[in-house]
Specification:
The chain is an all-alpha fold. The protein is built from twelve helices and no strands. Helix 6 packs across helix 7.
Length: 295
């Protein structure tokens, strides 16, 4: 009797195995295939550019690129070590100005006064600034720094790049701080931590990976900008002189890519590859720092 009852129950149980021709399964398969195809299509331009950079720029990679100066019109060889140093210097200035200011603003927006009118206006201004053409930052820095100092300079270039970096750092840091679990904040308050201690010991360490991601995105954008530097740092064939026109990789690529000389065009490809490698290395370092903070 028991055996018959068990067999009857097994006969009435629904089949829970996935059927390949069921409408929902077919829909899932089709959507998954479309998603995979779109991802492959989106990666084609990226990998094609990387392959072209490695092929065209890799042929000129040598030590001469790092200590040599840009060649004149009919010279053969040369390098752009001054442009690498100038790029690092101006991006460093921009980071020193924008990262602390952006993180402090994010703390105010996320924790101190998230719903105030000042916070609403600040978010709106940051979003508008992040969408404006970068040349406007160059025009502002030209009027505020270049005309005041009386000369193009690396300082003016760094200030122009910092204007572009602040919105990205601020908005991403705000979101990273908001993503910190509320129970952790409440536990810190329950243990008697002051708001400053809670922010320094609990919230910011947890939000570090997100903040670093925003900083890397901002640095990557700043390092590849050309228009603001044309108005502020201009270009130079000499090594770094902060109070005078300064070379940068982005402007060098812009200048050399339109020249009719094969040597300069090859240097432009090599400079593009170096610029991509600099951003890539910075990205790896930032992710390593973020993982160490999590551990």
């Amino acid at each position: 009797m028991g055996q018959h009852t068990r067999n009857d129950n097994e006969m009435h149980l629904p089949n829970l195995e996935r059927q390949p021709f069921e409408p929902r399964a077919l829909k899932s398969i089709v959507l998954s295939a479309i998603t995979i195809c779109m991802a492959i299509v989106a990666c084609i331009p990226l990998f094609s550019v990387l392959i072209m950079l490695i092929y065209r720029g890799g042929k000129r990679i040598s030590l001469e690129l790092f200590y040599g100066l840009p060649p004149t019109a009919f010279d053969i060889g040369g390098g752009f070590g001054n442009a690498i140093v100038g790029t690092l210097f101006m991006v460093g200035i921009a980071s020193l100005l924008s990262v602390p200011f952006g993180i402090l603003a994010a703390i105010y927006l996320a924790e101190l006064s998230p719903d105030s009118k000042i916070s609403t206006v600040a978010r709106f201004c940051a979003k508008v600034l992040s969408g404006l053409p970068s040349i406007l930052a160059g025009v502002f820095a030209y009027a505020a720094v270049v005309l005041v100092m009386g000369s193009y300079s690396a300082w003016a270039g760094g200030i122009a790049l910092s204007i572009l970096m602040v919105p990205t750092v601020m908005l991403t840091a705000e979101e990273a701080i908001k993503m910190v679990p509320r129970p952790m904040k409440e536990a810190a308050a329950g243990m008697g931590c002051t708001p400053a201690q809670s922010m320094l010991k609990i919230i910011l360490p947890v939000a570090v990976p997100g903040i670093i991601t925003g900083v890397v995105l901002a640095v990557a954008r700043a390092a590849g900008e050309t228009a603001p530097l044309l108005f502020t740092a201009l270009f130079s064939d000499y090594w770094l002189r902060p109070n005078e026109p300064t070379a940068s990789l982005a402007v060098l690529i812009y200048n050399y890519s339109g020249m009719p000389f094969p040597n300069q065009i090859e240097l432009a490809w090599a400079a593009s590859l170096i610029l991509v490698l600099l951003v890539f290395v910075l990205n790896i370092i930032s992710r390593a720092i973020g993982r160490r903070k999590n551990v």
